[in-house]
Design goal:
The chain is an alpha/beta fold. It has 9 helices and 15 strands.
Length: 342
């Protein structure tokens, strides 16, 4: 045994929104490496909405987190010790390492990062799963064309902020729907969205959408669902495309909302609705990362990160994100030892 690892584990399956008491700070010993393994020290943890679904006893398409198990999630880490010939101490890597300070994993499951390309944190955001979801979801499933109107829900989140900017790069008119007036201002002034709406209640969303999309809606990139999506479907143009990559408004409900209620709009408008999961595009990830990185260096893509500090901060930061109180990508910083290189 070579030390003690600190981890955040699942203590209780949440009912509705998670609570701090649903998580435990746990300790486990670190064993010696076997051939092909590496010991890594995590620097950034990724917090993402899908993790809430994995906390349930039943999770469609994925294995639920067992009680007492480390919370699932991606992380950027530094190799401390390696028994894999492809990695050496000091390398920076990204992988599914979970909410813990150290991890013992097979080296082949990790992606080595080049910190000359972009800051390491972007491997979990703009150049990671959120950015790739936005890239392939919008371009492959949404198929936007120049001059079309694209509406993005959850537009101030890690996926939505990238999807909207890519739509602008493609020459579309982009309307973002976010959770507060502060988010709306950010989408306008920093990210260059053509218009943005605050969705704090469903009371006047039809009127807001009609005013912001006078020519109708051609592409809807949906991460929220619920009544907001009902309202968008009512204003689709003929031949519109709807891309569903998340339904965050539904993840923390104690009782599921009724629906879908407006799918007849797809028939009336001859529209397409497609559920999207980014893993199906894995073979094309390197090319997409190169393109996203080029847009970033050119200043055509911007991003924002909210960073909590310390492993103990992860549960509260996760709840904060699920409540829609963050802008951009939510991260937890564990290690400060890399200084400016991070």
């Amino acid at each position: 045994m070579r030390g003690i690892n600190r981890q955040i584990t699942l203590a209780v399956r949440p009912v509705g929104f998670p609570r701090i008491s649903d998580f435990n700070l746990s300790y486990s010993p670190l064993r010696s490496l076997v051939a092909g393994e590496v010991l890594v020290r995590s620097v950034y943890l990724s917090l993402d909405p899908y993790m809430r679904l994995r906390m349930n006893a039943v999770c469609a398409g994925a294995q639920p987190i067992a009680l007492g198990e480390v919370m699932v999630g991606g992380a950027v880490a530094v190799v401390v010790e390696s028994a894999d010939p492809g990695l050496r101490a000091g390398d920076t890597v990204e992988g599914m390492l979970g909410w813990q300070e150290h991890a013992l994993v097979r080296g082949r499951t990790l992606r080595k990062l080049d910190l000359r390309v972009a800051p390491m944190s972007t491997a979990l955001g703009l150049l990671g799963m959120p950015g790739l979801t936005a890239y392939f979801g919008l371009l492959d499933a949404g198929e936007p064309s120049r001059g079309e109107t694209v509406v993005v829900s959850g537009a101030a989140g890690a996926v939505g902020m990238v999807a909207g900017q890519i739509a602008r790069i493609e020459g579309c008119r982009v309307v973002g729907v976010a959770g507060s007036e502060i988010d709306v201002s950010w989408l306008h002034t920093e990210l260059g969205f053509d218009d943005a709406l605050s969705y704090e209640s469903a009371a006047d969303i039809d009127r807001q959408l009609a005013a912001s999309c006078p020519d109708g809606i051609d592409v809807y990139f949906d991460t929220v669902g619920g009544a907001l999506t009902d309202a968008v479907l009512r204003q689709l143009n003929p031949g519109a495309r709807v891309v569903v990559c998340a339904q965050t408004s539904q993840y923390n409900l104690e009782r599921a909302e009724t629906g879908p209620r407006w799918l007849v709009a797809l028939v009336d408008k001859r529209a397409k609705l497609e559920g999207f999961e980014v893993s199906r595009c894995a073979a094309r990830f390197p090319a997409a990362r190169r393109k996203l990185g080029r847009w970033l260096r050119q200043g055509r893509l911007k991003y924002r990160e909210e960073v909590a500090h310390g492993l103990e901060a992860a549960p509260q930061a996760f709840i904060h994100m699920l409540e829609g109180k963050n802008q951009g990508k939510q991260l937890v910083r564990l290690s400060e030892s890399l200084g400016a290189a991070a």
